[in-house]
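Catalogue entry: protein

Sequence with per-residue tokens
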Amino acid sequence: MRDEKTFINFLMEWYGKGGFEGHYKMTKREATKYTKMYIDLFPNLWSGGDSLDREKVLQLIDMARGDTLAKKHKIEDVA
């Protein structure tokens, strides 16, 4: 079990600048915001900060970045 602060550092080791998957360029602000969102929205899925949690938080960040990019380029939902 990792506490939230330790989990955020875990995320940064993987997806932050210089991390194992550093091409994601995750910021500490994103890691903190989306970790809190994941825990708040999906408390039953929270596994104590394991690799599944890491991947789920990354998915939230990817979705947010995609939405931001779409808004920047004024792309509307098709559905």
About this structure: The chain has a mean pLDDT of 89. The chain is about 60% helix and 0% strand. The CA atoms of residues 11 and 51 lie 9 Å apart.
